[in-house]
Specification:
heterodimer, A: alpha+beta, Rossmann fold, OB fold (Dihydrolipoamide Acetyltransferase, E2P), 2 domains, six-stranded mixed sheet, B: mainly alpha, MetI-like fold, 13 helices
């Protein structure tokens, strides 16, 4: 098997008595775009900072292309990094910012100038070289920061919540731009974010982190559709959680609100009479009965939120509320609060949370 | 009501201005009376023509320049390191930098004379150059509260940690980071501290006198003790130099590149 490009092995980090990262393992392949996704305080930025060299692991090691870099200083690692707060040098022009790493590395001026121009073209800001950071918008500053990070051709690119300080529209366009530049250059990238949509949309793989550990590492499709833990299921996407009781473990029958559903092959050793947490994504539920949907529940519509292309409907069933999404259709008005409603779903879409 | 409040505001402003300006005007008027029966600039002519004035003033300017250099070399890396790595030590360092305001200069200089006398292990006072160096060190200590606060305030306006990390990850070492990133971004603050140091050094008497250095402060005192009109002229000249320094801080702050003043 080929050697991973970046290998984070059994890394632990403690600040005094508090352990913020524990036994973190991850292998990143060359050219891969991996995101660390998790809530604030889950340790994702600490892992990234350890890869950058700003924090030293309490245990474990970090290997890049077979070389142990755990004890190397940040300026010896040949790693590029983009920070949440842009971190452009206010006293330098855009071109000087981009050329900073090249100058430090001792590149001849003519070559450095050529590289800076190339970078400005790459980020589509060719006329901005003489401006100062304060003369640019947030989105432009972050693109400059990206160009500055990749100008010295680092082995690895680290992105520490680079889109968090930007407004929604710019975030979407910039994340697409980051991904397209990353693909074009084929640079191995680790991206830290707490925004699940961001992580799902641009990553090859996602490491979902919680309490200093990687709860699950997988492709966006796997993370969303086959969450390995309750935390991952709850953190990534919206989820409806039901309590169910196993009625027949052998055939996988589970009772949910007086409706029996078949979860054959998903019960994972549960016995008859056990109580389970079951989950369904809103898009897996339909309003009304639909062919191919083998389970249904009845209730009353409690809330209707018009979100444009999608209408999110909440239906009270027994003591719980179920959220589901339906597409907006100009021909038919959205359902009304208080209406009786039946929801249907395929029991195969139901997730058993462990 | 509005008219009334305006009247009181102007009255307070007028009283305040009079309080500050009247003594200056009186000193100025007195400094012009050297020639009997008419106003003249004879006192100023006499001061500027005095070779001792030029020598002591030049000496103090040179000492001030070295004081500023020492202050910058001492304070910028210290304040930077405290902000970056040792923020818990900030109250301690702030307290230490305030000590020169509390401990009289005469106490400091007597301590120096005892510590660095010609019989000590570090005999600064054994030679004139050594005494000059000790004077510079003493002035750097006296200017410490102003220099440290100015630089620390400047550092507060930039994200020291992130800028440092951004430079580090691009391959820069500490010297490059301080010289190319930190110092240019706190230049205005450093200049403020420098001009305040300059203003302190130019008029300082105690240290220069007790270390027996030919500085401007002792010269001012000597003139004051022996002549009538020249001290008033010198007082106004010193005042103009101090105010000139303050104005320069303002002007430089205004004309400095905005990039160096404005963090992202």
């Amino acid at each position: 098997m080929a050697e991973p490009f970046l290998s984070i092995q059994q890394v632990r980090k403690a600040f005094g008595a508090t352990t913020v990262v524990q036994d973190f393992n991850l292998d990143v392949e060359p050219g891969e775009f991996v995101s660390f996704l998790g809530p604030s305080g889950c340790g994702k930025t600490t892992v990234l900072r350890m890869v950058a060299g700003f924090e030293e692991p309490s245990a474990g090691k970090i290997v890049v292309t077979g070389k142990d870099i755990t004890r190397l200083k940040p300026n010896q690692r040949n790693v590029g990094m983009v920070f949440q707060a842009y971190a452009l040098f206010p006293n330098l022009t855009v071109a000087q910012n981009i050329g900073f790493g090249l100058k430090v590395a001792g590149m001849p001026k003519a070559d450095a100038d050529r590289r800076v121009a190339e970078m400005l073209d790459l980020i589509k800001l060719p006329q901005m070289g003489d401006r100062y950071p304060y003369q640019l918008s947030g989105g432009q500053q972050q693109r400059i920061a990206l160009a500055r990070a990749i100008a010295p051709k680092p082995k690895l690119l680290l992105l520490d919540e680079p889109l968090s300080a930007l407004d929604a529209k710019v975030r979407v366009s910039l994340r697409e731009e980051i991904r397209s530049i990353q693909k074009k250059l084929g640079i191995t990238t680790v991206f830290v974010t707490h925004d699940q949509e961001e992580a799902l949309s641009i990553s090859d793989r996602i490491a979902v982190m919680y309490g200093g550990k990687a709860e699950q590492v997988g492709t966006p499709f796997e993370i969303y559709n086959r969450p390995a833990t309750k935390f991952v299921a709850n953190f990534v996407g919206t989820l409806n959680v039901f309590e169910g009781t196993v009625t027949d473990a052998a055939s996988g029958k589970v009772r949910v609100n007086s409706q029996e559903v078949s979860l054959q092959g998903k019960l994972n050793g549960s016995k008859s009479g056990d109580t389970l947490s079951l989950a369904l994504r809103p898009e897996a539920i339909s309003l009304g009965r639909h062919p191919g949907r083998d389970a249904s529940l009845s209730g009353e519509i409690t809330e209707v939120h018009f979100l444009g292309s999608v209408i999110r409907v909440r239906v009270g069933i027994g003591g719980s509320t179920v959220s589901l999404d339906t597409f907006n259709s100009p021909a038919s008005p959205p359902p009304a609060v208080g209406e009786k409603a039946e929801i249907s779903f395929s029991s195969g879409d139901m997730l058993v949370l462990h | 009501m509005k008219q009334g409040s305006r009247f009181w505001a102007w009255l307070v402003f007028g009283v305040g201005t009079t309080y500050f300006v009247l003594p200056l005007l009186a000193t100025f008027e007195f400094s012009l009376r050297k020639r009997r029966g008419e106003y003249s600039f004879d006192a100023y002519r006499s001061v500027f023509g005095d070779p001792n004035f030029q020598a002591t003033f030049t000496y103090s300017v040179v000492v001030a320049i070295f004081t500023i250099l020492l202050g910058v070399l001492l304070v910028v890396p210290t304040a930077y390191w405290i902000r970056l790595r040792l923020p818990h030590l900030r109250p301690v360092v702030e307290f230490i930098t305030l000590l020169p305001l509390v401990i009289p200069a005469i106490v400091i200089v007597f301590g120096y004379i005892r510590m660095f006398g010609s019989n000590s292990a570090l005999p600064f006072l054994a030679t004139a150059r050594g005494a000059d160096a000790l004077l510079v060190i003493g002035y750097a200590v006296l200017a410490l509260p102003y220099m440290y606060r100015a630089v620390d305030t400047g550092l507060r306006t930039i994200d020291v940690r992130t800028l440092t990390e951004a430079a580090q990850i691009l391959g820069a070492g500490w010297t490059t980071i301080i010289a190319r990133i930190i110092l240019p971004n706190v230049l205005i603050a450093v200049l403020s501290g420098a001009f305040l140091s300059f203003a302190i050094v130019i008029g300082e008497f105690t240290m220069a006198s007790l270390l027996n250095r030919p500085a401007f402060g002792p010269y001012l005192q000597n003139i004051g003790a022996n002549t009538a009109y020249e001290p008033s002229a010198l007082a106004l000249i010193s005042f103009a130099i101090t105010w000139g320094c303050m104005s320069l801080i303002q002007i430089l702050s205004r004309f400095a590149p905005r990039s160096a003043n404005r963090p992202n």
